[in-house]
């Protein structure tokens, strides 16, 4: 059983929160990272469910100012945060607005950090993937790299029995590895490795993962091994396999788009009633 954790200060001004989620029928943990900037404003990375308890905990550490969705798979509770923190700005990766037209966002996340946080947090875009782009961040004061699905490190504490069995069969249990979306849909190895080279220029000593145990040793080596595995898969794929994966990636987005359009239509109906 994966328990929902309290908001804890992992490093000065870096707070972590975990909760269980269901992905492809498997239960794994997901981690939200909150950084308190020098201004006192809160920068929220990959938001978890906004429970009453979490809302109270957030209020004790600062004001939520920036809500970050690092890739389009991490979209849970974004609407709740926008409603609860109407003054906060939502930042999305490219490709996300097309999938979630119901969300009002401030700006797209690009390869360079915006003025709101560039003095403390750097960022870059991981390219080469036909399904999504993931934005990776580097918090300079704590020397922490923040990744979402680029690396997972799922062990016993972050999985359930059935999930462990599935991960052992298909890969991804007990060692750092890229999420299936990176392993499957990264087809341009050159663009992908170029993104990794940019990340390796940063002097990070820890890697905070959205899924699994935080990495605090041999961090650059872990990233290099994971990246090489992804690139090798991309380079070895046949042309017909690439075509099939391209089609599959489009189908995988459809459920999200359908839910988004339904939510948008419901909002319009509510507004017309008002």
Question: Any overview of this molecule?
Answer:
The protein is of the alpha/beta class and 274 residues long. It has one domain: 4-Layer Sandwich (Metallo-beta-lactamase, Chain A). Helix content is 37%, strand content 23%. It is built from eight helices and eleven strands. A seven-stranded mixed beta sheet has the order 1-2-3-4-5-6-7. The protein has a four-stranded mixed beta sheet with strand order 8-9-10-11, with helices on one face. Strand 9 and strand 10 (144-147) form a beta hairpin. Helix 6 (189-200) packs antiparallel against helix 7. The protein is globular. The chain starts with 7 loop residues before the first strand and ends with a helix. The mean pLDDT is 85.
H-E string: EEEEHEHEHEEEEHHHEHH
Radius of gyration: 18 Å
Tally of distinct domains: 1
Structural class category: alpha/beta
CATH class assignment = Alpha Beta
Described by the principal axes of the CA atoms, the overall outline is globular
- By CATH, the topology is Metallo-beta-lactamase, Chain A
CATH architecture: 4-Layer Sandwich
Q: Look at the structure and give the mean pLDDT.
A: 85
Protein name: DUF4336 domain-containing protein
Pfam family, one: DUF4336
Organism: Coraliomargarita akajimensis (strain DSM 45221 / IAM 15411 / JCM 23193 / KCTC 12865 / 04OKA010-24)
InterPro entries: DUF4336, RibonucZ/Hydroxyglut_hydro
């Amino acid at each position: 059983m994966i328990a929902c954790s309290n908001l804890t200060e992992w490093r000065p001004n870096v707070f972590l929160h975990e909760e269980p989620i269901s992905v492809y029928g498997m239960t794994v943990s997901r981690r939200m990272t909150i950084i308190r900037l020098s201004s006192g404003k809160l920068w929220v990375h990959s938001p978890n469910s906004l429970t009453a308890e979490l809302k109270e905990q957030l209020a004790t550490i600062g004001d939520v100012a920036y809500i970050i969705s690092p890739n389009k798979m991490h979209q849970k509770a974004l609407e709740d945060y926008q409603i609860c923190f109407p003054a906060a700005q939502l930042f999305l990766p490219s490709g996300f607005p097309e999938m979630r037209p119901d969300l009002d966002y401030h700006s797209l996340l690009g390869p360079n950090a915006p003025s709101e946080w560039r003095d403390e947090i750097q960022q870059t875009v991981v390219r080469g993937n036909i399904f999504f782009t993931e934005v990776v961040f580097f918090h300079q004061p704590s020397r922490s790299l923040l990744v979402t699905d680029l690396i997972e490190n799922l062990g016993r504490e972050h999985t359930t029995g059935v999930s462990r069995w599935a991960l052992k069969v298909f890969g991804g249990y007990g060692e750092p590895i890229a999420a299936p979306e990176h392993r499957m849909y990264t087809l341009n190895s050159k663009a992908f490795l170029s993104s990794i080279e940019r990340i390796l220029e940063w002097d990070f000593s820890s890697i905070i993962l959205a899924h699994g145990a935080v990495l605090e040793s041999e961090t650059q080596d872990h990233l290099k091994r994971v990246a090489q595995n992804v690139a090798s898969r991309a380079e070895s794929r046949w042309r017909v396999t690439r075509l099939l994966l391209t089609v599959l990636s489009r189908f995988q987005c459809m459920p999200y788009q359908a839910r988004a359009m339904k939510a948008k239509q419901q909002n319009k109906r509510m507004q017309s009633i008002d």
